[in-house]
Sequence to fold (107 residues):
Amino acid sequence: MALLSAAQKYALNKMNSTARKYGLGDQLDIQYYDSAASAGGAATETLTVTGLAAADLILAVSQKTKGANGTAVIRWTDTSRTANQLAVEWTGNPGAGAVLRVLVLKA
Fold:
């Protein structure tokens, strides 16, 4: 998934505000968060994603910034997740500096 364009961000914000206007509460509260940069050194790593709640439903994870080694993210683990943490796996050691974007439906 590519990064969200300005038009996509606008559409998500409009959906959220429309849902609230018609009393749907947070049913469509879709947010995205960027992770802290990876440290590198291994193909798997747990990244800090400030704002990510343990009960949030992850819709997509994409790589916003490639790490020093330019490897691709291939999966994330959604079991035993704690708040502000996400375990991810790349095709190999990403090197330092990889940043992920996490799109979620807020719980």
